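I am going through a labmate's work and have reached the protein record below. What it holds is a sequence and that sequence's fold in token form. Please read both lines and tell me whether the tokens look consistent with the sequence. Do not assume that whoever made the record got everything right. Thanks in advance; the entry in question is below.
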Amino acid sequence: MEQTEYISVGRFGRTRGVDGELHVTPLTDFPDRFVDLKSVYLEIDGRWNEFEIETVQMLNGRPVMKLKTVDSLEQAARLVNCELAVRRDKLMPLPPGRHYVFELVGCSVVDDKTQQVMGVITDVLRYPANDVYLIRSTDGRELMCPVVAAFVRKVEVSAGRVLIDSSGLLTNEAT
């Protein structure tokens, strides 16, 4: 699996006010982490650029950020929908047994009984009851597997594979 140095933790939403502030849509389970950040990386023209953060405040549980070099509504408007990233070494530590989505995407899904490769995880969908692995099967179909102990037997991120009970696989009819 390809590893990138920069991990997306949010996306700029709409602007706020006229001084260059932007709402942040967190792509993390830790939205409060933005308050302690000193800088973020934005991908502009295919290159990651570091921007120093001037202020961050939480409004209704959502971060609002002001970058030091962005001082007008017009400048901020150019950053709407831009992803915010941090270096991999700045990620929040997770408890044992928890994994970041980017660690799971690209992992092979293997039947724990037959050792047959069922496909590759392409995304993790978040639902209130449990997450669901979105899997591109070896024959090109889109499958889903609820992330529950009854079906997910073992996650081996370092080996790039997830062992499952394949009886838990569902076909995604939307594709």
